[in-house]
What does this fold into?
Amino acid sequence: MTEIPVPRYGETALADLSSSVLGSLGVRGAANVLDLPELPRACVLLIDGMGWELLRAHPEEVPFLSSLPGRPLTAGFPATTVTSLSSLATGLPPGSHGMVGLEVAVPGEGRLLNCLRWDNGRTDPESFQPRRTVYSRAADAGIASSYIASGAYMGSGFNSAITRGVNYVPADGMGQLVARAEEALEGKRAHVTVYHSDLDTAGHMYGAGSKTWRYQLRFVDLLAERLAEVIPAGTALYITADHGMSNPDDKLDTAVHPELTEGVALLGGEARARHVYAEDGAADDVLAAWTEVLGDRAWVMSRAQAVAAGCFGPVEAEMLPRVGDVVAIARGGLAIVNSAVNSFEHLMVGMHGSLVPEEQLVPLLWTAR
It folds into this structure.
């Protein structure tokens, strides 16, 4: 197996951005490993799906963002919204907060939890993601903490799991995002997160780099520029993303490969980062079958191998059963789908989740006033 490019947890990962922002605001115990400037206010603009590689490939669409200093961060594994937003919310790697994929097994219940859609109350968000949030830590330090995003997400199971302790401010549309952020930054000390998801949606539907995606990226550039114009003196603005995106064209449907379903109890994760949960006693056979079929088109590992490699960072014992008995990380243009279970996933053009640079690297851009 070729060397696995694991995220740089504790050095330059998304979780380190959150802890560094807290540290820059003077919160005790928060390590400012990114050496961010000490200012009384910080605003993080999170653009869903805006990968570092994609941003560098389209400078003509982002004149403002291209003018800012920046560096790449690693999203964490898997490079997906659930995991990355949880890392940003807690300042912890995936193995600590336990949100290790889009669909993960609920230990002891023989079922999957789709962490974005949740499950109508069957799973308690605060128990499933029990770690303290950076928003709570900021608020406890006397810093006004606000999370500004679409009202459609407010009160969802996922947001209940990751935004505890924050003032959730609904804002639908880019104008509202800027206006609400400006208001939230009026205090003497403030920690503000602004989340926008439309670029990710365009990528899934039409492909990363498509005409629709490029036009949406232009609007994102305007959003960032307007936000930079309204931040008050003494404020740092950090612009980042939860993952990048690629357009896989080699779609392997496990529904027509019986050797990939034999001994499999649940197929979790998503097309570029699969958690394969085996039936009792079948883990070794499942690992052998997936290794043989996927070959060099994926990194295929046992749970123990994936944890030892550092894919998730340190994994807490209570979170270990959420990791698949087999972890399959797609490389190149591979997408691992199952049309018998998920009728729309194979229709997506843009996807993410893997450890490849196109999906794993996200920007950290900054400006201050």
